[in-house]
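User: My notes are a mess, but here's the protein and flavin-adenine dinucleotide's SMILES. Can you give me a structure?
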Amino acid sequence: MSTGALAIVPVRDGILPLGGEETIAEGGGSALLVGTGVETAAREMVVQPAGRLLGWEAGDYRPAAWAEALFDTIAPHAAVILPASPDGRDLAPHLAAVLRRPLLTGAIRLTFAEHGTRVEVARRGGLVGELYETPVPVVVTMQPGVRGVDPSVEHREQPPQLELLNLPFSPTSSSGNPELVEIMPPDPATMDLGEAPRIVAGGQGLGSAELFARLGKIATALGASLGATRVAADAGWVPFERQIGTTGVAVKPRLYLAFAISGAVQHTSGLGHPDHIISVNLDASCPMMTMADLAIVCDARALIDELAGRLLSSTDVET
Ligand SMILES: Cc1cc2nc3c(=O)[nH]c(=O)nc-3n(C[C@H](O)[C@H](O)[C@H](O)COP(=O)(O)OP(=O)(O)OC[C@H]3O[C@@H](n4cnc5c(N)ncnc54)[C@H](O)[C@@H]3O)c2cc1C
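Assistant: No problem, the inputs look usable. Here's the predicted complex:
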């Protein structure tokens, strides 16, 4: 039995889920990307595993059959860890069942002691931390956005090569697979903010719930989700699940548009590494503007009115 962890990250169409790289960093061992587009996902990774980087092009999501096919590969690892993303949360119990191991969900920290694994899990909505020290092998899901990424893991000079696995696998080999009928794109207006690829967010400078409602419509017109700072959520202009940051949601958008947001560290630490940041602010030198690829110095309220006029129907602009 290996003492190291194996991080298993389900991949769809070459896209790593929220918390995927964080899980690899936290495990500190090898990583296995499984799903569709694993080579693309491996190329996009900022984090490199300390051990081997494995990939299995397994096709459409078949959690029970995947678990059976993966048994020999994963059984030697004392800790098998997955991000608590939708697919990770779903695959983990299948792996625990075939391995006949306990499953610890929602972990916020994972360490290895001489006699086993120490897993700290968050309970009661994050109010309570419970510590489990287990000498037996486990399967664990990691809460995204809690631990971040160790920079020393991030900058390895010689990243491991992706080793593609060729596993014997029959999609119908297990009765526990859901039948895939259709994959429907998520609605940006209601999807989990943590999974949103584009976010349009507002801050204290917008000044009212009405302007946030209008910004939400602009976000929808742009195929983006609405986010906010804590100040805006505390003021009641948006529900708390829209708050981004250390005490809100950890997000991982590719595109982030910030309207009247100063860029306090408690906000930006929950932002991930967007490919593009656009910031609109009256203060050209605030942190959000210095982080931005495109910094627009203007009145964000006026720009929202202008965008609403161009992107929304007249009924939407009025409401
Ligand atoms: C323990 C703790 C946890 C916290 N957790 C979070 C968290 O999870 N998320 C979070 O966001 N914050 C968090 N905060 C709060 C954080 O420190 C900041 O106070 C907050 O992020 C600032 O929000 P803001 O940018 O909307 O407001 P401000 O900092 O007040 O900035 C408003 C910005 O709007 C600009 N502006 C004003 N009017 C206009 C206009 N008409 N047009 C264009 N620009 C304009 C201003 O120049 C300014 O840059 C936390 C704080 C603490 C102490």
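The longest helix spans residues 86-99.
User: Great, I'll file this with my notes.
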